[in-house]
Every structure is written in structure tokens, then in C-alpha cells.
Give the backbone structure.
Amino acid sequence: MNFSFDLTVIFALIIAFAVFAYVVMDGFDLGVALMFPFFPERRDRDVMMNSVAPVWDGNETWLVLGGGALFAAFPLAYAILMPAIYTPAIAMLLGLVFRGVAFEFRWRTERGRFLWDFAFFGGSLIAALAQGIALGTILQGVKVTGRAYGGGWWDWVTPFTMLTGVSVVAGYALLGATWLLMKTSGDLQERAYRYSRIFTFATLFFIVAVSLATPFLEAAYWRRWFEWPGLLITAPVPLAVAATAFFLLRALMNRQREVQPFVLSLVLFFLSFVGLGVSIWPYVVPGRVTIWQAASPESSQAFMLVGISILVPIILIYTAYAYWIFRGKVDPEAGYH
């Protein structure tokens, strides 16, 4: 694995950070919505929605940053990948629109509240599923003709992309369930413990399934994970996943630990993200285009880096401030208006 540190690598790391920040931050509030069918009582759903209401829209800042940085820093990759994932990307955006509208409208009606509850759940399910399908589409490789996407409209529909789609849904549900452990109490929290264990096993199953399927997609993936000397780098990742899973399950058995399960769930996502990075590095279009081949001119990257160096700390500060202000348990009597 050749690693030469330059502006292109810096931007690759910035985009990776933005994508991961989006996944973990918007992942748990999508996950809270995915838990709605398991909590049919209105009071419980009000508390669940209130737990993410102060932060959910700010979480999506990272999606904009990641997409914008990809367009500006790696325009060739953007031009190739976007046509390949147009359908899941549009589905994701529509899902986010429905859940965003549901946040406001479900509090304004009594007769139609069930419709907006369904929109909140359905929009989140579509968004999570679409994100997983888009990930699977990129990971399995896209056809490149010259400097453009050369595949068809339905190339994103494969068993592997359906697997990654369902995997992301299960993972987000785990984040949502463990988030509720921190933010709720009483019977709602008790049931969240039960569903956290269920979705932990589901997430681990899908991690194993995707990990077993991925090396067969590209010969480079197989060499990276199973041949020497790459094995020295990759072997610690599944071991760390196994250790994290053990501590997560143990924490869920101890009802006194409310924060640890959520943190360990984030670690599980981070390790999966690292595994993805190990598989595809240094390609931005796996097996076809490297980050250096797709990069914009160095002068453009240097100009953008100045702006990002200012904006990212500001985003981190106001995000941290929002989470700090709204820390602690949700008051069941409080409302979102």
C-alpha cells in the first residue's frame, strides 16, 4: 500500500471524515425513526422524536460537506460515480425530505398524526436503505468508459447492493436503539435495551456477511485481505470488531451502563469504515480511478483547503455546543414546537 502524503490525500481524508461524521450523526437519528414500529404508543414516539429534534438537521451538514468536497476535490470521481448511483441518491434525498417535513407536521395535527409518523419512519427507512445500496454499488465497482460512467441505469440492482442496503438499515437501528438508552428512562428505556441486543446481533451478522462477500468482488480486495504482507495490516480489523462486539454485548447486559453501548456501537461503525478504506485504498472509483487520477489541480485544492480549515472547526464547535446544551434525559412532558 503506497502512501504518499500530499494535498490529494488530505482531501481524501477530509471527505472520509465528513462521510463518517454524517453516518454516525445522522445514522442515530435515522435509527430512532426506524424504531418507531416497535414503539406504537404516542407518548413514546413523542419522547423519541424529541430526543433528536434539536440536532437532526445539523447532522446533515456533513452530507453537504462530503458531497461538495467530492465535487470540488475529485471532479472526475464525482462525474463517474453520480450517474452510477442516481436512483439511490434521489431516493435518499426524497426520504430525507419526507422525514424532515414529518418533524414539523406531526406536531400540528391530531387526525393525520399517523400519516406523519409513517412518513418519519418510511422516509428514514428509504434514506438508510438507499445509502447502503449506494455504498454497495460503489464497492462492487462501476463500469468506466474513457473518463465517464459506462454502465447501465440498473447496474446498482444486485444481490450485494441489497445486502449492503439492509446492513446499513440494521446498523442505523442499532445506533438509534443505543441512543435511546442514553436519552430515555423507564419502560421506554427497558424496551430499548431489548431491541439494542437484537440489533447488535443483526448488525454483527451483516458485518460478517458483507465482509465475506466483499473479497470476491475484486481481485485486489482478496489480495489486500488474505495475501501477505497485506494480511499484517488487515488482520487486526476483524479482531478489533470481535472485541468491540464482546464489550458491547456485555455492556447491554448491565442495565447501569447507558452511554457505553452507544459509544461501542460507534466504534463498531468506525472499524467497519476502516475496513472499507483498507479495501479500496488508493482508489476513489474502486479498481478504476485512483484519488490522484481523479483529483482537481493542486492550486484549486490549496484554495479550498483554506476555506475548509475555517469552516470545519466552526461546524465542530456549534455541533458540540448543540449536543452539550441538549445533553441528558428527555423530559417526557416537554414538547417540540
